[in-house]
Amino acid sequence: MPLTGSTLGRENTGINNMKHTPGGRSLALWPALLATLLLPERAFAAGEIQLQNFTTHWAGWLAVGIFVTAYGFVIAEEALHLRKSKPTMVAAGLIWVIVALVYSASGDTHTAELAVKHNLEEFGELFLFLLAAMTYINTMDERGVFDALRVWLVTRGFSLRTIFWVTGLLAFVISPIADNLTTALLMATVVMAVGGSNHKFVAIACINIVVAANAGGAFSPFGDITTLMVWQKGVVQFQEFFALLVPSTVNWLLPATILSFTVPRMQPDPCSEEAQLQHGAWVVVGLFILTIAMAVSAHNFLHLPPVLGMMTGLGFLKLYGYYLKRRSQFYPEAPTESLTDNALELENNTTSSEQTQFNIFKSLERAEWDTLMFFYGIILSVGGLGTLGYLAVGSQLMYGDLGPTTANILVGLLSAVIDNIPVMFAVLAMNPHMDHGQWLLVTLTAGVGGSLLSIGSAAGVAVMGQARGIYTFFTHLKWSWAIALGYIASIWVHFLINSSKFSG
Predict the structure, then answer these.
(1) By C-alpha distance, which of 428, 405, 432, 410 is closest to 502?
(2) Long-range contacts of range 455-458, CB-CB < 8 Å, 24 or more positions apart?
(3) What residue numbers bound the domain in which 492 lies?
(4) Segment 231-253, tens digit of pLDDT
């Protein structure tokens, strides 16, 4: 039972009646002092935050204006070349200053502090989970796993239509494990290498990859940030996500079939590349699978946060990294052939020596820090607006007035314009009363709705940057009608095959 102020007082009285054994009183007093400092605050944070409604207050309107302005900069990131984390982090700080001021003015000096700590705790779990996953992905990249896969596909001599289907299928299969962003970038590299100057094929294949990666990420907690948030929140259990496998497959296959008719069966220009796996590549893959298993087990069997399993797995990777680093010292790679210029030869040999020194912190450095800080800004900003009362109003408007089915379908449409991360975080913060089928529905729509526009998902934005000038917003928009058919069909299939999960 959590300790409130009154129960804690009774506990302290009991401590005073303990026997005065040498050192016994002081040893027992430390846990009591810690409980006095920490537990009342945790109990208050868990169930005694008294939120007020400031939605019609000038401060509420100012906070909304700050958030909208910041998100305008996020949408214009490609044009302004301003990292999306910068405006959102500033907005988060300003919004919480407003929250603290209006609550203090009303005589409440505790709610703002407790509410922001709650949001920081949620961000902390997400941050550490993603940091571990990104480090594993970067280490597999450094060991040549993704290069080997790319070269294998490029050198098989497949026709363009075969490449279209193979890259789409791999995007759908890999994204549930490696996340949709990494998968989309990898497959986009393949189609650009195969397609070459055939820009029409590259554009169509990139659309297919983005849709497939988003659809594949929708039925796995590891496939997308939104599914990860839903899993960590505990509203959908790990194995229950797989009920979305068939709807997600339909979401990809329907538009992919339509798009495939525009892809010729011609053979691409021959391509010869080589890739070599570094020592320990498959061990790293195995450790990543073990880490995922530990995260799932921590949540399902031990009832601990999944991030604990991920960080333990990251510790295993760091230990294995120590072995790789020591091994490279005893078994260095052969130096490159000598050059006529002695100075250049020395420089090249030094670079080669540095490259053979595996360093796990290089993989940590290569994490998507802009994305991680963007999550901080979004979670804190949305949390601040919720503390001002806007999420309660939004919950009543969407889930009370429109109903859960309409609201959840609308969430998918909003995620194509705004981005699915703040939309899903807002839904989870609202925590509307829904049956299990509706929670699966919003997980599906938030995951695949971003495919409707190229800017609607991290995968789409990343591929636009990689295939700049070829895969564009308007190129994707031209086929949004076909993607919308897949969106509608996936919702219909979900209601059809998962009808038992709806209460009525």
Answers:
(1) 405
(2) 455/75, 455/416, 455/417, 456/415, 456/416, 456/417, 456/419, 456/420, 457/180, 457/210, 457/214, 457/415, 457/419, 457/420, 458/180, 458/181, 458/225, 458/371
(3) 369-456+478-501
(4) 888 888 888 899 999 999 999 99
- Sign of torsion, CA 243 248 254 257? negative
CA distances from 275 to 177, 288, 354, 371 (A): 23, 22, 20, 29
Q: Cα angle vertex 224, ends 218, 230, to 5°?
A: 80
Nearest to 455 by CA among 411, 418, 424, 414: 418
CA–CA separation, 251 and 486 (whole Å): 4
Question: Within a domain: residue 5?
Answer: no
Token output for 136:
């594993």
CA distance 156 to 153: 6
Q: Is residue 225 assigned to a domain?
A: no
Residues 125 and 307: their CA atoms lie apart, in Å, by 6
pLDDT of residue 482: 96
Please report the pLDDT score of residue 332 as a whole number. 61
Relative orientation angle of helices 436-448 and 420-430, to the nearest 10 degrees? 160
- The C-alpha atoms of residue 80 and residue 77 are separated, in whole angstroms, by 5
Terminal C-alpha separation, the chain: 35
Cα separation, 136 vs 220, in Å, equals 18
Query: Are the beta carbons of 43 and 3 closer than 8 angstroms?
Result: yes
Q: How many domains, in total, are found in the chain?
A: 1
DSSP letter for 54, please.
-
Predicted confidence (pLDDT) per residue in 140-169, tens digit: 888 888 888 878 877 877 888 999 999 999
Is position 406 within any domain?
yes
Identify whether 382 is part of a domain.
yes
Amino acid 1: pLDDT: 33
Average pLDDT of the segment spanning 65-89? 87
Alpha helices, DSSP H, located in 143-280: 145-154, 160-178, 180-195, 199-217, 225-233, 245-260
What is the helix (H) or strand (E) element at residue 286, kind and residue range?
A: helix 281-300
pTM of structure: 0.72
